[in-house]
Amino acid sequence: MDIKVIEQMVEQALKELKTEQTQRFSLSRPENYGIFETMDEAIDASEEAQKKLLHSKLDHRQRYVEAIRSAVLKRENLELISRLSVDETEMGCYEHKLIKNRLAAERTPGTEDLATEAVTGDRGLTLVEYCPFGVIGAITPTTNPTETIINNSISMIAGGNTVVFSPHPRAKRVSQTLVKLLNKELMDAGAPANLITMVEEPSIENTNKLIENPKIRLLVATGGPSIVKKVLSCGKKAVGAGAGNPPVVVDETADIEKAAMDIVAGCSFDNNVPCIAEKEVFAVDSICDHLIHYMKRNGAYEMRDEALIQKLIALVTTEKGGPETSFVGKSAEYILKRLGITVDNSVKVIIMEVPKDHLLVQEELMMPILPIVRVSDVDTAIEYAHEAEHGNRHTAMMHSKNIEKLSKMAKVMETTIFVKNAPSYAGIGVGGEGFTTFTIAGPTGEGLTSARSFCRKRRCVMADVFSIR
Ligand code: NAD
């Protein structure tokens, strides 16, 4: 073969290779399945996708919602993301992740959430509709990494938005796996590429870029106080879903055996990482021993030795008094083993009696450690519960049959979720009515978020006609 022809062939091959490399992260190549090298690229791709989504029919959006549901509910995917989540973050419990991921896929509302308001009269017809913001920047926690991505993606896409996620760096692999498989399923369902995007290397720096980028029209932060404060002070519209420290009050009228079972079940669910999970108990003196007795019958391990409680605190908290990350979301069995105590996995929570100002009461630890404060009467219990919640106005529980005291606590606490006579998770639709969310926006007031929480209300007026009354 002529040397010139060979040279031309090599040149052509090199050119193609170069083009392929430069296109590897470019917007037009769907094979990235939403993963980009830089935050700007992830946002640009999202903006391009949102322009397409804006003009798609509601029917199509609902089809995309169903595609997300079906991607997550495929057994191999559900098992993969649940397993990866526990392996990578080293938090929570695989069996409970399966339940939470399924819940997010099945019970997050779709486009039906976008109810139109209509006003008609002699001057015509006025509609108020929930419309997209555009590109949303969503920051997600380590504690519910996949649940939040599934839940936010369904809500935001149903609302006509696209979403750029900034997951916690400690959950990057599982978040990427999920984003890729969701985009693949979405594209198979005919959706534009990149409805959901993120960067290859999530970091605080990349989150800052997300917050600052002018193409991001709405920020949604699900996490602790630092990130919620940051998005709320950035000058853009933001939805903040922050920390909690949910107290439980048990009074003398409660069904004590059921209360004990419910509290242990809620507190131990996913090893206590849910922000809604029971974190401390205030029990009226006359039933406190009974409550502890039934808690022990239902999987609680009681610590009575003060020296052991101090050893536990030294193990699971930092010098500043916050949770030691390596113990967040660990099982009671694991924590006890580190203290030289061997139990089997029927032990779900560690309980101890402490005074109300105790560190274990006041700090949100996200571990199955449940301090119990004995109080003289229900009014004191409510007062202490209010103090321990620190004005987060997140979640609280009460076990009682006294409707006046139930009503009093609901009012005093002002929490986004108040659960009566059930485990905390009844508040997100498990064993209680109502839809599911993993972004509970207390500070900014959207409450349990759904598609409409991520939409702008717009008015559309037709003067003089279309009132048919
Ligand atoms: P976290 O605050 O450490 O991290 C949350 C997210 O914010 C992560 O993506 C992290 O990378 C980012 N982040 C944190 N500080 C930042 C900063 N200064 N600048 C930029 N990015 C920052 O929280 P976590 O440990 O992952 O999650 C647990 C916390 O989240 C708990 O306080 C829990 O109560 C809360 N939470 C709340 C809800 C809710 O719906 N209200 C849901 C889940 C978790």
UniProtKB/TrEMBL annotation:
Entries under Pfam families matching the protein: Aldedh
Gene Ontology MF terms in the entry: acetaldehyde dehydrogenase (acetylating) activity
Keywords assigned: NAD, Oxidoreductase
Bilayer-crossing regions: none
InterPro entries: Acetald_propionald_DH-rel, Ald_DH/histidinol_DH, Ald_DH_C, Ald_DH_N, Aldehyde_DH_dom
Aldehyde dehydrogenase domain ranges (all copies): 37-296, 349-423
Keyword Transferase: no
NCBIfam families, A to Z: PRK15398.1
Protein name in the entry: Aldehyde dehydrogenase EutE
